[in-house]
Each structure stands twice: as C-alpha cells, then as structure tokens.
TrEMBL record:
It comes from the Eukaryota. This is DNA-directed RNA polymerase. PPR repeats lie at residues 298-332. Residues 76-86 have a biased composition (Low complexity). It comes from Rotaria sordida. Pfam families: PPR_3, RNA_pol, RPOL_N.
Length: 1283
C-alpha cells in the first residue's frame, strides 16, 4: 500500500468478488524471490517507510450492492460497442453526480493475471457546475484591448509535429491564446471543465519530434486532460488505498513513540503486553484472511524493545521477540544486531556462539561490523558492551574513527587542496577569546536548554509596577496554578477511565513523563504569552496545539539525554573542541573531523536518537493541555476592581474559543477574556519568555555529524526544517551514507563556527529611539499608542445602510492596521531585547536547511538574515587588520549600502565616498543631531554602522593595522537570473546580469524598464489610451519587484498586485486606472523578460512541463538531488483527513496524499534554482574555510572581513564556474528519468492511448533545452558578478 513497496512477503494472487464481502487472499513468498519493481532506482527513492508485509489493499465498508454494480458495469463495458461505451460512461457520470462523494468507491486494483477484455474501473467525477461554465465562457469570449501574453500550452504545442500520415485536407485546429489566469481557483475551474475530454487526440501518433514552426496540439491535449478521470489508470493507487496507507503508516509511527515513552516511564512489561496483543490480533486476522491497518510492520518498534532488554541484560526476552519478528517477516536492521551484541556485553558470562551467529547474520544482510559504531542511537555504555563482545574474537580490535571523507565530484578540487598548516596559517592577531570563561558559558548553555524556557529582560519595561497591581498579579497566577493542577489531574483521570482497551494507543504515557508541576508551568507560560498579545489578533487553535506539543517533545528529549550521561560527555569534549573552533586550527582540520577524533580519544559516544513523535500525537497533547486551560481556568480573583470575588464562583473563562471565517473555511482560534487583557495592559511585561532554540548559543554549536546530530547541545535541532508529518525527505537523507552528504555537513559547520558580538553603539541608539515611541522614517516600528491612527466613526443607531457599511469597513481597516503595527512593534521588541541580553557576550548561530537546501540560522527573531536593523547591530567577534586595501573596501561597501551609485564603477564609488567624507564623519559623530546624511540611504542603519567603522579606521594611527570586526558584503547581481543564464549559456542574458566582463555594472531592472517604455510609446502612438496615461510613470521602482519575483514563479495575478501597490504610492497617478495600468505593465514586463532571457525561458518552460507531468501522470511529488547530494522533495500535497478519537485530523504534508499539482508545477523552477544557489554558497564556504577566510552568507550575499574581500570574490567566481561546468540540465534529466520514467514492463501492459502518453512523458523528461554560446570562463574576469 505504500507508494512503491519493495519487499512484500505476501503478494496478492486472488481477488474474489462475492455478493456479501470483499476478500483478499495472499500467499507467502521469501524476500529472495520477490520481483524488483522496474520503476525503482538503486536507492529505493520512493519508499516512504519500512514496507508492510501484506498487500494492504483492503477497501473498507463495501456494500454488496455497490460491488455488484461495479461488476455489471465492467461486464457491460466489455461487450458493448465503442459508441455504447461512451454513452454508458456519460450515464454513469450523470448518476454519480447526484450521490455523495464519500459513497464513491475508488476500486482500482491491479490483477494478476488480467483478462484481455477486462478494463479498469473508470472513476466518475462530478460534472462542472453551470456557474463555472458561465465564467469560462465569459473569460474566453470577453474582448480585451490589452496585449495578451502567449498561452503556455499553445507555446508548447508549437514545438511538436506529428510525423505519421495525416490526411492532407484535414485541418489542425489550434486553441487561441488566452490571458491565462494563474490563480489556483481559476486553474482548478479550467481543469474541472475538461474532465470528460479524452486523454489524447483520436488520431494515431507513432512518433513525435520537435519543430518550433509547426502547430500541433498533441501535448496541448495531453496537458489539458491530465486531470481527467481516465488518467488515473496510470496512477498506482486509488484514493482509498492512499488513505489506507496513510493510516497504516501513522499507526506504526504512533506505536513506536508510544512504546518508547512507556519504556522510559518504566513500564516495559505493559509495552510488551500491548505488542503481544497486537501481534496475536494480527495473526488472528491473517488466519481469517482479513487485512487491517493495525499490522505492526515498523522495525523500529522492535528495536526499541531490543535496546530495553539489552539494558537489562535479558537475553531470553530479546531472543523471543527476535523470533516473533522473523515469524512476521520483518527484516532486522543494523540497530537490531547492535542491540543483540549490547545485550550479550551486559551479561557477566555469555555464549560466544550466539555472538558469532549474530555477526554472521548481520554480514549476510549486507552490513559490516564496523558500521555499528557509526549509529547515532548508541551511547558510551552500548559501545563498551559491544566492544567487550568483539574483543572476545579479536583482542586487539579497536573502534575506528568515524569517517570524515567526502565522496563528491564537485568538491574533489576543494578537499584535495593542501590545507593550511601551523607554519603557513595566517597569524591570529586578535585574541578575542583569551578572557572568556568557556566552562561557565558551557554550563549556562546547558542550564538554558534543560529549562528550555529562558527569561530575558524586556527593554520596554521602564515603568515600575504598582504594588497593588503586583499583588493582584501574583494572586491571579497562583489561582491559575491551583486551578490548572486540579484540572490537569481531573482530565487525566477521566482519560484513563475512558481508555481501558488494551490495544488502544493513547497519550496517557506522554502525560506521565514529568511531574504535574512541569505541565502546569508550561500552561502558565502559554497563558502569559496570550495575555500580552494584541487584542486585535487571535491565534489558530491547531497551530497553538502543535507548538505546545513540540515544546513538550523537546523537554522529553532533553530529559532522556540527561539520564543517558549526555551532559558528562559534553563536558569531556567541549573544552578541547571550543579551543579548536575559536582559533585558526579550524582551518587546518574541519569541525566534523576534529569532533570525531576527540570522541574517539575521550571515548565520549552519545546517543542522538531523535525518538520522533507523530503529528497526531503532538497535536493531541497540545489539544489536551489547551482543553485543560479552556475548561478549568476561571476568573477567581479581582483584577481591576476592589470587590471581593473570592466568595462567588465566576464562570468567566480566562481563555475562550472563537471561530473566524477565511474564504470558504472556518478556523478555530483562541482569545483572552477582555478583562484579563485590560488588566495585563496595566502591567509592563518585565521579562520575555523565549524557547532556548529561539536564542543564539553561548558556545559553539555541535557540529553536524549526520542528519540527526548537530546544532544545539541537548535540544534536538532539525537538519532540514519541515512540518512534522513531511517525513519523505528525512527518510531519503537517513538512507544516504555520510560520505555522500559530507560536503553539506561541512559547509554548514563553517557557518556555525563563526562567532559574533553586539555592536553596542548602534544598539544604544536603536533602543533610545524605540523606547521613545519609534520612528517610521528611520524604519523603527512605532507602538500602537504612538501611531496616531485616525479613529473611525462609531456605529450609531439610525444610520443608513450605506453609511453603516462604510463605517464598518473603516473600523475593520483600522483594526487591521493596529494589528500589523503591533506585530511589527513586538518583533522589534524581541530582537532588541535579545540583542541587549547578549550585549556583553560572544555567541554563535546554529544553522540548518530548508527543503531546497537554502541555509538559515535557527533562532528566528535575532540573526544576520533579518532586516537592516538586525544586520546593523552584529559584528564578527574576531577582528582582522584592514591591511592595504581594507579601508577602500569599507568605503565601497558604504556606497553600495546607500544604493546611490548603482550604475557607477567600483572606482567611481570609492571616489564618491572620499568626496562625502565630511558627511560620513558627521554621521558617525552626531547621528541624531547632525546633518543625518545616513538617513537618506536605502539601508540606513547598516550605513550608520559602516560610517562609525570608517571613522574609527581613519582616526587610528595606521589604518592598515586597525583591527576591524565589521562584515563586508559581496552581493550577486539578480542571482537567480545569473544561474539561469549560466545553465542555458544565454549570451544576452549573461551580459545583462554581469556574467560577462564590463567596464560598468549592468542593471537588468533598468534594461527591462527601458524596453517596457519603448513598447508603451509604440502603443501610445497607435492610440491605446492606457499607454498614454502611463507616460512618465514607468520607473524602475514600479516594476522592480515584479522583475525580481518573476524568476521565483510569480503569477500574472501576483505581478498585477505588486505593480498596483507601487502605483497607489504615486499620488499623481489617477486611481481609476490603477487596475488597467497594472495589468498592462505586468503583461509587458513578462513579454520583455521572455524576449531578453530567451534561453532562460526555455529552461523554465521545460521545468514547468516536467513538474506538471510528474505530478499529474505519475501522481508523485517532484524530487531531485542537488549537486551536493541533498535529496529534495517538494512538500506540496493535497489535504488528507483521518479520524482519531472521533475527531477529524487534517494533514497537508503527508507523503501518502496525492500531490498538489498546481503548487508542484509552479514551485519547481524557483525551487530548483534555489537549490543551485545554495550549492554555490556551500562550495564557496568550503573553499574559504580551506584558505583561512571567515565566511558567512545571506543566501546570495556573502560576508567576510574587509581585508579578505578580494580573495572571497575570486573563490566565489571559481566555484560558480566549477558548478556550471557540470551538465546540470542533463544530470537533472537523468535524475528525473531514474525516478519517474515509464519502463518497458509498464509500456507492455498499456493500451494504445496509454502508450502514447507514456512515450510523450518520457520524451518530455529527456527533452533538455539547447544551450547558447556564452563562454562560462568569462565570469572569472567579471568585476560586477558579485560586488
């Protein structure tokens, strides 16, 4: 039932149709005799979890009458003529439209053998509504005076020609190009209207070749009918089967977490009884030939028991369970054998023959003994026991150092370079670390993660709290603690009484991990956070529950690691590792290699198993705690009144539920009682509560050793940030060897190892402005009280209907503006408060990836990826002398920040800085009282920080010896287009984005603006009214955002919105023409970009074609591997629903759901290019580290010290050329073909129309766009490529 099942000891061999039931029979097969699926690559890329051991094809709740109707339909379809078949299909569709969708039976089971005449069951779909048809007719028939961009489908059709014989007199019809509406709703409507079209045109097509000048609609018809019912014949599973797989997978993952928590709570026997009962029930159903999703197929469930028995030295229990596992044909993993050896090592005397048999078995399964020591789930005690057993066979056996090798062709040149040695390494002049007590910092970091919640003093807490209010506040919190304690115990007892079934997996063990005080403290913190929130905002209930459940999960992991001796091992390792990171030794031996050496030397092995909880369990835990808060928190104490309410019982809840409508859906949200909000508004929030993962590290983060080990010390850090239920990419990563992803790990460790400190001078200015109400002109958010928003008129009685509506709209807009202002103000409050907290500290940012491979700091509120303010208040902790060219680089960087000389040469920018040196020094000396030149900059606060750095350098005795901590940026010139131009070797596009050498920088935005202006003039001369109105308004700022986001997949609708916002900001532009003008400019911008970047558009079109076919024909999410072997899976799926405890749980990220075709198609081009720009950044980071250069990145903006800018620029260009010398498009094509290509076995079983579809599908994936004539090596001499 999984997407592709590799190992299936039971295969379907008979499908019996009876009038009373649906029965599935199966026969056992050994793993050796199983046929391998031809559409799987060697890495089993499409396996989601361990494959179940039965063909999970049971379709629940089938009524006999429905089954008979299907049989009759099939029989009649075999004997009827083609014309009657079409009429029957129409009749079925008409009949099924009037029935409920939930009663539709999607049965599409592949039979073996299949009779020749038997046809697959066609699934009926509802007919499009008349409203949609009416809208469609209006769209296609309404005339437009505006230029119309070419339709993508027609453009594709022009590339195809049929080479088979066609009647010469037969005319080939084409679809007139329409202004295609790119919104999701419009596209879905169009697809629904085409449901009844045939899969391919009726004429036979034997061969398809490319021809740009011939019009053919073969691909057009294919793409336009991909959402029809007939294409589902090519899908592997029906909707019912997919839902069944999802439930089965969720059950096994929930069972694993449930068993793990039970064992942690000391209830091993209870967990074993549960497993035994499940296995007995499974065997009973097997004997009755009934299948169910409650089959235990997850090997990690058994491994959890094995390690529990190993810790107790209970070999007999372990052997019994091992035999049961084999009985149910579940294959052991390396962890299973490691647990067996650990169990033997935990015994005073053990039978060596058992150990020998374990070793022989694991080698037969293809494992190696030495690989055991690379497992992340083993702690030092496990390693000691295993080593004890192995030394009985080989007394001189020693644990090998964990491999730090990298197996990647792209990185060979970097890793094969001779690294720096103690002799030739640069002298470290700034010993910034000599006065820091790193042992104290390590203890502080560990305590912070153990507590998980950190209190930071708010910079807004200037007022003293009134004593009476303070007393009432303490009474209120004490009252809540008492109510929550009673409520928690009450609800837990009720839950225990309801859950008396032995086979039931519930959340009771998860609520018994900690003492009641821990849960109550967690809820009190959550309530306080709500009380200080905005009265204009309410949070979604599901989001709050997941956040609270994840918080509990992180505390659980920290508790386990404390008990496993994790902290003691960290103390052994961190002293030496910190010395390595803070000195230049990190450029000689990388972080991963050094950590492995120290671990081996100190014998400090640690268990980093993440023990994941499922999405359902996290959600249920959060719901339980929130239900306790909603039901049991009442207003029992007086807040702003002097009346004594203690004698009266109040039914007013502190929190209550509201339901808000957004479009078609209604969302459950949480609000705070107005009285409580009013009370807390009189109490300044003295301390802000943050999770430890929202703050920087006080010591260097753990190096990334694998996809599960790295980041924070105790708290689990995700290597790839993704929703809980989106586990497909994580499964791919875990299946890869460390050698394959070693380059990924090392590059992120380079970013992790950069130490930072606070720029106190700029922070003081910001805090002063913020505490005095903010300043919009300086981009410092203002508070709602100081915003001076116009108050809307009251909704009085007796108003006319029109006046009342106007006032309601004004009131709604005011509330929205206040909510936005409050959000911005809070975000800045968090950032500045955290910065003030770390004012006198040196700190580090742990990093991880998004699913595309782009790197981000883990702390969300305060990091160098933030706004202009965030970047202005941080500096490198390590300083370097400016040297002969450093001051010049600071001046150029200052001018770059102002954006005043964007078209000027580098030398002209440096000269401009010298010309305005008086303004620079005045800004540094009197930032708020002087001429304030810095406030006119595009990035004012970074400009001010740079002015201060230049002033200090100039006034030093020798500026070449001045030690600078200031980061200097090198930014790419429209980096997405740079990658597209390099992939397609687009000579014209490369010149416009500075890939080619030039005396002056090229500005692609200005080029497009000039081209659009020329088109406007021509249209105006032809009498087009909107072109005349736009005269003088087409400026760079108006369409810059559209040009930028076009490369990220912005739609025509989105571009129109962007341009309309810019036109509204122009006071002189007539408001009544904004919609028409924005539509005109969006179309012109798209056409100009297509003409300017012809090769780029071909590549984007090919990406879109591939993604659309993969998601619709193959019914799969698009996935590929980056050049550094990161497996990428686009996590865009349709919503899947399942019931848990009588409640509907919706999951938008389950890999068992069908893909969201529109998102898969639209997102693939920008996501693929983002995976390339992250690869370029990582290669540059590794090259810089190899040569002793500090490196930090903000995607396509690379940072280093001023003295190293020239070398950074050289390495950046070299790695870009190295990356794009690889045939990236051909590699991507091969990658997609290996995963999705239709094989000959599938082709042989298909009918004629399916064969044509399969061939066209394969041809599209192979159709790599031709490349241009651009010489890639010229990038090495381009001064403005990154500048």
């Amino acid at each position: 039932m999984l997407r592709i099942i590799n190992f299936r000891p039971y295969l379907l061999n008979t499908f019996a149709r009876k009038t009373c039931q649906l029965t599935v029979l199966y026969r056992p097969l050994s793993a050796e005799t199983l046929p391998r699926r031809h559409d799987m690559d060697e890495y089993n890329h499409r396996i989601d979890i361990a494959a179940p051991h039965y063909e999970l094809l049971e379709v629940l709740n089938h009524r006999s009458s429905q089954l008979q109707s299907f049989i009759k339909t099939n029989r009649s379809s075999r004997t009827s003529s083609p014309s009657s078949d079409r009429s029957t299909t129409k009749t079925n569709i008409r009949y099924r439209t009037n029935t409920k969708r939930k009663n539709q039976n999607n049965v599409n089971i592949e039979l073996n053998p299949v009779k020749e005449k038997e046809q697959p069951i066609e699934l009926a779909r509802p007919k499009p509504s008349k409203t949609k048809e009416k809208k469609k007719k209006e769209k296609t028939t309404s005339p437009s005076s505006l230029p119309i961009p070419p339709n993508r489908i027609n453009e594709l059709s022009k590339k195809l020609i049929r080479t088979t014989s066609i009647d010469e007199n037969q005319s080939i019809t084409t679809i007139s190009p329409n202004l295609y509406d790119e919104t999701l709703i419009a596209e879905e409507e169009q697809e629904d209207l085409e449901l009844n079209e045939t899969l391919l045109p009726p004429s036979s097509v034997e061969e398809i070749t490319l021809n740009d000048n011939h019009d053919d609609k073969t691909l057009t018809d294919l793409l336009s009918s991909l959402h029809s019912t007939k294409v589902r014949r090519l899908h592997k599973y029906t909707d019912e089967e997919i839902k069944f797989m999802h439930i089965h997978n969720e059950f096994n993952r929930m069972l694993q977490a449930y068993v793990d928590v039970l064992i942690f709570n000391g209830k091993l026997n209870q967990a074993r009884r549960l497993l035994n009962e499940l296995l007995v029930d499974q065997e009973r159903r097997q004997s009755m030939k009934k299948l169910t999703w409650r089959y235990v197929t997850n090997i990690h469930v058994f491994n959890t028991f094995y390690f529990a028995y190993a810790d107790k030295g209970n070999l007999k229990a372990l052997q019994d369970l091992f035999e049961k596992m084999r009985k149910y044909h579940i294959k052991p993993t390396l962890e299973s054998y490691a647990a067996g050896l650990s169990c033997l090592g935990n015994m005073d005397l053990f039978d060596s023959s058992i150990a020998r048999r374990i070793i022989i078995d694991l080698e037969k399964e293809g494992f190696r003994v030495v690989d055991i020591f690379n497992l992340d789930c083993l702690n030092h005690e496990h390693i000691q026991r295993i080593l004890k057993v192995l030394k009985t066979f080989r007394p001189n056996f020693d644990i090998p150092i964990r491999s730090s090798n990298v197996n990647n062709k792209l990185l060979n040149n970097i890793y094969q370079q001779p690294s720096l040695t103690i002799v030739n390494q640069p002298i470290q002049t700034d010993l910034w670390w000599k006065d820091i007590d790193f042992k104290k910092k390590l203890n502080d970091q560990l305590n912070m993660e153990i507590d998980h919640t950190v209190k930071i003093k708010s910079i807004n807490a200037m007022k003293k709290i009134d004593e009476k209010l303070s007393t009432r506040y303490q009474d209120f919190i004490s009252s809540l603690e008492q109510q929550l304690t009673i409520g928690f115990l009450t609800e837990l007892e009720l839950l225990k009484r309801k859950s008396k079934k032995n086979l039931e997996i519930n959340i009771i063990p998860f609520l018994e991990i900690f003492d009641v005080k821990e849960y109550v403290g967690l809820m009190i913190t959550e309530v306080q956070r709500h009380c200080y929130a905005s009265e204009f905002h309410s949070s979604p209930f599901v989001t709050l529950c997941i956040s609270l459940g994840r918080h509990l999960y992180q505390k659980y992991l920290c508790l386990i690691r404390q008990k496993n001796g994790f902290i003691d091992k960290l103390h052994l390792l961190y002293d030496e590792y910190t010395k390595h990171i803070i000195t230049n030794e990190r450029f000689i031996i990388n972080e991963r290699q050094k950590w492995n050496e120290i671990t081996k030397e100190k014998f400090a092995y640690m268990d980093r198993n993440d023990r994941r909880w499922t999405f359902t369990q996290v959600l249920q835990l959060g719901e339980f705690l929130y239900n306790v808060m909603l039901k049991h928190m009442k207003l029992r104490v007086p807040l702003l009144t002097k009346k004594d309410q203690t004698k009266k019982t109040s039914n007013n809840s502190v929190l209550y539920v509201v339901y808000r409508s957004s479009g078609k859906s209604t969302e459950k949200q949480i609000k705070v009682h107005p009285t409580v909000l009013h009370f807390f508004s009189h109490i300044p929030e003295a301390n802000l509560d943050f999770s430890c993962i929202e703050l920087p590290c006080l010591v260097p983060p753990l190096p990334w050793l694998s996809s599960t080990m790295g980041g924070y010390l105790l708290t689990q850090t995700e290597f790839v940030r993704s929703p809980i239920s989106a586990g497909q990419q994580d499964a791919r990563l875990r299946s890869l060897s460390i050698e394959k992803i070693g380059g990924l790990l090392d590059s992120i460790n380079v970013l992790n190892s950069c130490a930072w400190k606070i720029n106190g001078d700029v922070l003081d200015l910001l805090m002063d402005i913020f505490q005095h109400g903010g300043n919009r002109h300086l981009s410092v958010p203002v508070s709602v009280e100081n915003a001076k928003l116009p108050e809307p008129l009251p909704l009085d009685k007796g108003l006319s209907i029109d006046e009342q509506k106007r006032r309601e709209i004004a009131l709604s807009q005011t509330k929205k503006m206040k909510a936005e202002l409050f959000s911005l103000w809070c975000y800045e409050l968090y950032r500045l408060s955290i910065a003030n907290h770390f004012r006198n500290e040196v700190f580090w940012f742990p990093h991880n990836l998004d699913f595309r491979g782009r790197v981000y700091p883990v702390p969300p509120h305060f990091n160098h990826l933030g706004s202009d303010i965030a970047r202005s208040i941080i500096l490198f902790a390590e300083g370097k002398p400016l040297g002969p060219n450093g001051l010049q680089q600071l001046k150029i960087h200052l001018v770059n920040l102002t954006d005043l000389k964007k078209k000027a040469s580098i030398d002209e920018r440096a000269k401009y800085a010298d010309d305005i040196m008086d303004d620079i020094l005045d800004s540094a000396d009197r930032p708020l009282n002087g001429r304030q030149w810095w406030t006119k900059s595009e990035e004012p606060w970074q400009t001010l920080a740079c002015c201060m750095e230049i002033a200090r350098a100039i006034r030093s005795p020798d500026h070449t010896k001045y030690v600078s901590h200031f980061p200097v940026h090198q930014d790419g010139s429209c980096n997405v287009l740079q990658h597209y131009a390099a992939m397609g070797l687009d000579d014209i596009g490369a010149a416009s984005v500075n890939l080619k050498p030039n005396d002056l920088p090229q500005d692609v935005y200005s080029v497009v603006v000039d081209q659009v202006e020329q088109e406007r003039k021509q249209d105006a001369s032809n009498g087009l009214q909107i072109a005349k109105i736009l005269e003088g308004f087409i400026k760079r700022k108006v369409i810059k955002q559209t040009i930028m986001t076009t490369n990220y997949g912005v739609t025509l609708y989105g571009a129109r919105q962007q341009i309309s916002r810019q036109l509204r900001d122009i006071d002189e532009f007539p408001r009544e023409y904004i919609l028409e003008a924005s539509t005109y400019l969006a179309q012109k911008t798209f056409i100009s970009l297509r003409e300017l970047f012809q090769e780029t558009r071909k590549i984007q079109d090919w990406f879109t074609d591939c993604a659309r076919l993969i998601s619709r024909v193959r019914d799969s999410a698009v996935e590929w591997n980056t050049p550094l072997n990161l497996p990428v899976v686009q996590p865009y799926y349709r919503e899947i629903r399942m019931k848990q405890k009588g409640k509907d749980i919706y999951d938008n990220f389950s890999s068992f759901a069908r893909p969201n075709n529109i998102k898969q198609k639209n997102a693939f081009p920008p996501n693929y290019v983002h995976s390339l720009d992250s690869t370029h950044m990582m290669m540059t980071a590794l090259q810089c580290a190899r040569n002793g250069i500090t490196f930090v990145s903000v995607h396509d903006s690379f940072w280093t010290h001023a003295c190293d800018v020239d070398r950074l620029g050289q390495y950046c260009r070299e790695q870009f050329v190295s990356l794009h010398k690889e045939p990236l498009l051909e590699i991507l094509s091969r990658d997609l073909l290996s995963k999705y290509e239709f094989k000959s076995s599938e082709y042989a079983r298909a009918d004629d129309k399916q064969k044509q579809t399969m061939k066209l599908f394969n041809d599209t994936l192979q159709r790599v766009p031709e490349r241009g004539t651009f010489q890639l090596e010229s990038v090495l001499n381009s001064r403005y490529f990154f500048s």
